[in-house]
Amino acid sequence: MQLLATVDSQVKEADDDINDIIDQLNSLRKDKEGAVAVGEAVTVDQISLILKKQLESLLWIDQKSVQDSQGGSLHSFGMYDDAKEPINLSTLKRLRTVALAIKSTQEILDKQKLLLDGNLSGLENAHNLSSEIKNLEILNDIKSKEVDYLKRMCTKKRIALLKLNDERKRQVFRICSQIYTYSSYSISNVQEESRIVLKACLSRMDVRYESIVPILDIRQKYLHIFTQLGRNRRRILLKELIEIFRIKV
Question: Is residue 82 predicted with pLDDT exceeding 80?
């Protein structure tokens, strides 16, 4: 009777564990669509360990039930309690059914674990990609703000250059006009000054010519007189030579 009570308590624990596992599987199926955390994957491992322990604890009951169905001795496996009362076969069948259910549940859990591991890796990759996309969006916003700032600065610089170019054009035009006025004024002044200088030179030349002309007339007269005297002196000298040398003419 003590062994039967022990088997019944193990069956109840196995049923409770199965119910807990089913609840956890339902919760995992609900969380499968969302982000699966690492702690939930650890929970699946814990569930697998619990099922393995329960399966190992109930396999010996399954083996003994099989041996009993083949005519084996239950006493050799210790299947009698202190009162030498055999265990009910329906209990053994129930235990075998529970063991098979636990085994099938273990296989289902292994498959679900593989699926969850694949989904977890995919979700981790998707989370990493989403974080990278967010970081790239933030960088893109920063770069777009910088580009807008540079565009505004370029527009301001272009406007400043246009204003400076206009100011330089006005200054060049003003300087050219001043140079033209100064040049025209200086040319007229030079012409007037050259005309005045030319008149002064001509007047001085006229004065000198008027003062030189009578002197030249006087000198011309003296030259004519000296020429006459020279001719007369020559005649006299020729006469004297003829007389001296008695030359007949």
Answer: no
